[in-house]
Amino acid sequence: MVAFSPDTFAAFLADEDDSPVIMLNLLRFAADGGRERYATYLALARPILARFGARILVGGEGLPVLTTGDVTGWDAALLVQYPRRAAFKAMVDDPDYQRAFQVGSSALADIVLQPLRPRPDWL
C-alpha cells in the first residue's frame, strides 16, 4: 500500500518552499502485471505533471545492487523535479492525479519517496 507518513509529509510541506525539489521514487512492482500498469500510470501522469510544472528527469530499470550488506534492489527508479513543494502538494490533491494514482498504486508492491534538495555545487 502506498501512503504518506502524515507527520513527515506535513513537515516536508512546512519547510521552505523557495526552490525546486527532486523526488526520488524507488519502485518495486506488483507481481501481477505491475510493470505494465505502471507504464499506463506514467502515460496518465505525464500531462498532469506538466500542468504543475513538474518533469521526470530520469527513469530506469533497476540492475543488480553492487554493494554489500542488507540491501534489496528495486525494480525501477525515477527522479521527478517539482518547481516547489506546494506544486507537489497541489498535484497530489488534484482529482485527475488521484484517478491516475489509483492505477499507479495498484502497480506497486512497495515504494520509497525520498525528497532531495538540489545541490548544484555537487555537480
Automatic annotation (TrEMBL):
InterPro entries reported for this sequence: Dimeric_a/b-barrel (IPR011008), DUF1330 (IPR010753)
Ranges of residues in domain DUF1330: 35-103
Naturally occurring in which organism (per UniProt): Sphingomonas citri
Organism superkingdom: Bacteria
Protein name as it appears in the record: DUF1330 domain-containing protein
Pfam families the record matches: DUF1330
